[in-house]
Amino acid sequence: MKPDYRIEALAQQKALSAFALLHAVEPSFPVEDWDALAAPGSRWTCVVAQDRQGYVRGLAVYRMRKHPVAGDLMDVPIFIAASVVDDAGIAEQAFEWLRNRASRCNYIRVWSAIPKALAYMQDEATFTRWDHGLIYRVHSKAPPALL
Question: Domain ranges in the chain?
Fold first, then answer.
């Protein structure tokens, strides 16, 4: 039987568990930056994947912006799937959830390395670069110039 994960926006009662997962992957990410990311009203959206017992097994942090070359872009600097048994299943379900939310975007970019700080995630020069991450075309009619 394939495990099923609940993918949903981060609830405040899961924020500490989500940070623990992030910290396991990128220990230098400051807790103050996490607090800013996870705060209500943040420009970023945090999403968790939970198993049937409610344990956080995945985390994605994204925002949608207009990229100067790609147009509408879902930018995902943090994407983590962690399980000894089913990391691929978690990643697949979480990415599908993101893809469904990115319907108005041309592309989704999942960064290849977890950033070490919020300032790097919000740096305009970093955002406009096109050389750091997996680029996924959401619609077949998206501008082909970048692929």
Answer: 6-146
Considering only CA atoms, give the Rg of the chain.
Answer: 15
* Residue 44 vs residues 3, 10, 35, 73, 134: alpha-carbon distances, Å: 28, 11, 11, 13, 19
The single-letter code of the amino acid at 114 is: I
Q: Which residues pair with 61 in a beta bridge?
A: 46, 78
Give the separation between CA 106 and CA 53, rounded to whole angstroms. 35
CATH number of the domain at 6-146, please? 3.40.630.30
Q: Please classify residue 46 by burial: count the beta carbons closer than 10 Å to its beta carbon, then call 0-12 exposed, 13-18 middle and 19+ buried.
A: buried
How far apart, in whole angstroms, are the C-alpha atoms of residue 39 and residue 144? 36
4-27 b/e with 16+ CB inside 10 Å = b? ebebeebeeebbebbbebbeeeee
pLDDT tens per residue, range 52-97 = 999 999 999 999 999 998 899 999 999 999 988 899 999 999 999 9
User: Distance between CA 55 and CA 52 in Å, rounded?
Assistant: 8
**Cα–Cα distances in Å, from 60 out to 27, 45, 82?**
16, 8, 12
